[in-house]
# Entry
Amino acid sequence: MRENELALSWVKFMTAEKFYSPLKIGLFIVVLSYFLWNLHATFTLSWVGEWNFRGHVNFNIEIQDLSGFVGTLFRFAAGILAFGAVVYYFVKKNLSKPALYKILRWLLVLEAIYWLSLLATAVTDTQSMLSLLNHMHHMTLELWLRSFALGEVPSIVESIVPPIVLLILAFKLSPNKPLKGAIKWVLITGTVYIFVYWLLNSTLWLSTWLAKGTTYLTTYPQNLFSFVTTIFGVLALGIYAAYFTKKSVGAQSLQELKLKKIGAIITALGLFYLWNYLTWIFFGGWSSWYAWFMGHNADLFLLSLPLLGVPLLFANELSEKNDQPKQ
# Structure
C-alpha cells in the first residue's frame, strides 16, 4: 500500500508541480528519435532498383522492397503524429483526454500496418524455401530446416504477432472503457515486442556464428558479450517481462503498477541496443550480424529508451523527496 501511495505522489509531482520533468524530457527524446529514424528510413532510397541483376528482375526482392517501403511510410506517419503531439503538449502544456486516446489509437494502427507490411517478405521467402523441397539434392533436410528456422520463422512471427496485439490494444484503448483492459494489453504488447526483438536478433546472431565459426566469438570479447546478451540476456528480459505482466494484469489504474520495475525493463532493452551500437562504433568490424543491426535495423531508435526508463527507476525516491515537508 505504501509503495502505491509513493507511486501516486510521484505521478502527481511529475505532472503537476514540475512540468519539465526528467520523465517528460526522456519521452520527448525517445519520440524525437522515433521520428528522426523513420524520417531517415523513408528518404534513404538506395534500395531502389536492387531487384535488377544483370538485366533480370527478381520479383521477390521487388515485392519485398516495395511492400517494406509502404510500411515505412505508415511508420513515418506515426512518427510525425507522435512528434507533433508531444510538441503540442509541451507548447500548450495540456492535451485533452479524448485527443490523447485518439492519437494513441492512430499510432497503434499505423505501427500495426508497418509490421503487417513485412508479411510480403515472409510469404515470398517461405514460398522460395518450400520450392527447394523439390530440389533437395542441393541441400540436406537438416540444412533446410536450419535455414527455415533462422530465416523464415522470424519473418513470419514479426509480420503476424505484433499487428494482432497492437490492434487489440487500439480497440481496448478508449476513454469510455475501464483502464484495466488497456493496462493489460499495454503490458502484453510490451512483452510481445521484447520476445519479437529477441527472436529477430538471436536468429541473426546464430546465423553469423554458424557462418563465421566459434573463433569469431572467442577472438573478439565484444562479440562474445553481444552474442550472450542477445541469446540469453534479451530472452531473460522477456521472461521477466512476462512474469511482471502476469503479476500486473489486474491493475485497475496506472498508480497500481510498479514503476521502478517498468523502468528497469525499458532501460535494459534500451541498453541492449545502445551497447551493440557503441560496440560497432568503437571496435568496428563487419559481419552479417552488424549488416543487419546497423544497416537494416528499423528499430535502432530504441537505443534512446534509457532516457525514458531511468527516470522511472527513481520514481519512489522522487516521491519520497516530494513528500518531505518544506523547511
The radius of gyration is 22 Å. The chain has one domain: 2-127+141-323. Residues 97 and 175 are 7 Å apart (CA to CA).
